[in-house]
């Protein structure tokens, strides 16, 4: 038995192989998607690099982001891997599956009165990356997908209302204003662009990764991050309250990882907006919820590996 697990995001994909359904053969790899013409090119390249024959693969599980435009069908996968069972699931559902039995070493507690996940309640998973994802793990260990990142945000200040109005002008597809407009890689970059235009300054950064890696002393980057964490806190508050998911809040995703690793997480602003002055029963529940950063960027592959047992 050889299991091939793949998480395909909007910018990066993560891949690994397992012969026992428990452990990865080698360290999982993270590779940009834009170097491949499509999913079959990427899968075949990785398997050959690992010196495996495609006929050896017995299970292929792929998690795919809606921000990736590759066409993926069972037929095209089985042409290359004829002996495999195939499953395609949402990328954020895979993240949630990986967190069902997460190792505490893979988590970093950043707030909340409780310091351990409380399995008596559902738990929320929020991921900021190329897009914005929200999923719930309920008490029966069922994973609930959502379109939470595509919901209209509440504007609690005039500045937020004006910011989303300007973000709207930068969108190619003119949907309603949504949380993802701000809480994503393009979101934080566009906030910075808007602030640069307001101050009649040229943009120093052309992508979010460069901005987060080198912009910590730039006042406009600092202001952009403050807006980002305000909106992030608002979104997290709603996610917990709507899902009654006071068991844990897990923060994951490529942008979240970079913010954390570059020591740019604005804890004060995030928690100020997470702990809104709501009625006592809601505020107390939100304050009790343990908040974790998921340090393991391959948690989705672990979720897919668990899913393989049901194929």
In brief:
The chain is an alpha/beta fold.
Structure description:
By secondary structure, the protein is of the alpha/beta class. It folds into two domains: 3-97 and 299-308, ATPase, nucleotide binding domain (Nucleotidyltransferase, domain 5, 2-Layer Sandwich); 104-294, Hexokinase, domain 1. The protein is built from eleven helices and eleven strands. The protein has helices at 39-49, 74-80, 91-99, 158-169, 185-198, 208-214, 219-243, 254-261, 267-274, 280-288, 299-308, and strands spanning 3-8, 12-18, 29-32, 59-64, 85-90, 107-111, 123-128, 132-137, 143-145, 248-252, 291-294. It has a six-stranded mixed beta sheet. The protein has a five-stranded mixed beta sheet with strand order 3-2-1-4-5, sandwiched between helices.
Task: Explain the layout of strands and helices.
Layout lengths: L2 E6 L3 E7 L10 E4 L6 H11 L9 E6 L9 H7 L4 E6 H9 L7 E5 L11 E6 L3 E6 L5 E3 L12 H12 L15 H14 L9 H7 L4 H25 L4 E5 L1 H8 L5 H8 L5 H9 L2 E4 L4 H10 L3
Helix pairs in contact: 3-11, 5-7, 7-9
């Amino acid at each position: 038995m050889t299991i091939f697990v793949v998480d395909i995001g909007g910018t990066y994909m993560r891949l690994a192989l397992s012969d026992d359904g428990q452990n990865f053969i080698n360290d999982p790899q993270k590779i940009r998607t834009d170097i491949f013409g499509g999913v079959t090119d990427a899968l075949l390249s990785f398997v050959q690099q690992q010196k495996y024959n495609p006929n050896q693969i017995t299970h292929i599980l792929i998690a795919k982001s809606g921000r990736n435009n590759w066409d993926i069908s069972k037929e095209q996968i089985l042409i290359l891997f004829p002996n495999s069972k195939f499953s395609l699931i949402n990328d954020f559902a895979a993240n949630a599956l990986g967190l069902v039995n997460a190792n505490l070493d893979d988590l970093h507690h950043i707030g909340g009165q409780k310091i351990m996940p409380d399995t008596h309640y559902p738990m929320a998973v929020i991921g900021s990356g190329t897009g914005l994802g929200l999923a719930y793990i309920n008490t029966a260990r069922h994973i609930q997908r959502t379109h939470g990142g595509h919901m209209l945000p509440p504007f609690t200040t005039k500045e937020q209302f004006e910011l989303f109005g300007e973000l709207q002008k930068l969108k190619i597809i003119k949907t309603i204003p949504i949380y993802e407009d701000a809480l994503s890689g393009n979101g934080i970059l566009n906030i910075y662009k808007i602030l640069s235009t307001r101050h009649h300054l040229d943009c120093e950064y052309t992508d979010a990764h460069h901005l987060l890696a080198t912009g910590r002393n730039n006042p406009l980057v600092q202001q952009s991050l403050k807006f980002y964490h305000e909106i992030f806190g608002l979104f997290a508050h709603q996610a917990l309250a709507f899902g009654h998911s006071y068991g844990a809040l897990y923060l994951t995703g490529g942008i979240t990882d970079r913010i954390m690793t570059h020591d740019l997480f604005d804890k004060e602003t995030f928690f100020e907006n997470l702990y809104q002055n709501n009625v006592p029963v809601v505020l107390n529940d939100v304050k009790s919820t343990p908040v974790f950063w998921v340090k393991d960027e391959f948690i989705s592959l672990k979720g897919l590996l668990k899913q393989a047992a049901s194929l």
